[in-house]
Design a protein that fits this description.
This protein has about 350 residues and is α+β, with helices and mostly antiparallel strands. It is built from 17 helices and 14 strands. Among the domains are: about 80 residues, no CATH class; about 90 residues, no CATH class. The strands form 5 sheets. A 5-stranded mixed β-sheet has the order 10-11-12-13-14, covered by helices on one side. It has a 3-stranded antiparallel β-sheet with strand order 1-3-2. It has a two-stranded antiparallel ribbon with strand order 4-5.
């Protein structure tokens, strides 16, 4: 299927064809990674008008927008009603599949100390719940200190970076998922209200709405689950799917894929934006050299979209009270096109002034 048509469909479903999300929760319909500084804030600002740092932080503190460890154990901003779907619902119940979900370090510890992954997760999730009881809010260091007093020694390997023992990273992250924990605007952990977990197969539908056409393996990787687990969830919705060029699609989305809306305007997408996730990367940047520059193991740049097409890479740098945005063009792009969007990004980053470099 034509590359640009698939990208246009996914762009529209990501909320980037037009800035028309009604609020922050709607803008976060596809969970927005918050791994790098202000990434989720900038991602939501690319999808909704009137987004401000103050409004974003107020929504996070109130729980009107949830920031939490969810898919792949990574921190994302998402709609409150989706907290359980992208969190608890996707935790594997089988020891081998949970071990794969928690990663090699936990698998090695389990083999060495002869514990089951499910039991380990239950222990750390219970300790996390206890640590955050009575409305406590703890930053990461304080939470780890509380866990040290509550968790078995075999679950706390030595960390060279921290120069201390603490719960294995993926284990404590998924423990916050199981415990229904979220973060406030100051990056402190607190008990959330994720609600009852829905059927996990709904995550397959969401994946295909945002990244269709797709395949079971792509879903499993995006959701952070073992391949057999992902295949079972996929099979539960198989009757709702239609095969098209490039994979499978929800039957109800076939017409939307055939005639996606045209995108307008400039967007400066942060690294980790939902539209820059792995399902889109080869389509967005077919040239391998360009793709390696855009999607680096660490310190990736953001992407400049012009009318929905990749037109440049960008990197922010604070210069006193000014935000400097360096742009590398890879397509048609004029300085005048960038100025309004660059000011928007500077305002969200808290900079009163902005300077464009290289545009």
């Amino acid at each position: 299927m034509e590359r640009q048509r698939v990208l246009a469909f996914r762009l529209a479903r990501s909320g980037l064809a037009h800035r028309e999300a009604g609020d922050l929760a709607e803008a976060a319909a596809c969970p927005a990674s918050d791994f790098s500084r202000d990434a989720a804030l900038l991602a939501l600002g690319a999808r909704a008008e009137g987004v401000t740092r103050q409004g974003y932080e107020a929504a996070v503190d109130a729980g009107d927008l949830v920031v939490a460890h969810v898919v792949r154990g990574a921190i994302h901003a998402l709609a409150p009603d989706d907290h359980s779907l992208y969190g608890r619902a996707l935790i594997a119940r089988d020891d081998d599949e949970l071990g794969a979900q928690l990663g090699r370090q936990v698998q090695r510890l389990a083999a060495e100390h002869r514990f089951a992954a499910t039991a380990a997760l239950d222990e750390v999730a219970g300790a996390t719940t206890d640590a955050l009881a009575k409305g406590r809010r703890l930053d990461k260091n304080a939470l780890h200190e509380e866990l040290r007093a509550r968790v078995s020694a075999e679950l706390m390997p030595w960390c060279k970076g921290c120069k201390s023992h603490h719960v294995a990273p993926m284990l404590w992250r998924y423990a916050t998922v199981k415990a229904g924990v979220r973060l406030d605007a100051e990056r402190r952990y607190l008990r959330g209200k994720p609600g009852r977990a829905p059927a996990a197969s709904e995550a397959v539908r969401r994946f295909l709405r945002f990244y269709g056409p797709g395949m079971p393996g792509g879903f499993a990787e995006w959701a952070g689950v073992a391949k057999p687990h992902g295949q079972r969830l996929w099979d539960e919705v198989a009757g709702e799917l239609v095969e098209v060029e490039g994979g499978w699609l929800l039957s109800e989305d076939r017409a939307a894929l055939e005639t996606p809306p045209a995108a307008k305007g400039i967007r400066l997408l942060p690294p980790g934006d939902p539209y820059l996730q792995k399902p889109n990367r080869t389509l967005l940047a077919p040239d391998e050299a360009l793709r390696k520059r855009l999607f680096r193991p660490v310190a990736s740049p953001g992407a400049v979209l012009r009318d929905g097409r990749l037109a440049g890479l960008w990197r922010p740098k604070a210069k006193g009270r000014k935000l400097e945005i360096a742009v590398e063009k890879v397509g048609r792009l004029r300085r005048a096109d960038l100025e309004e969007e660059a000011r928007r990004v500077a305002e969200l980053r808290g900079a009163p002034d902005v300077a464009l470099v290289g545009a």
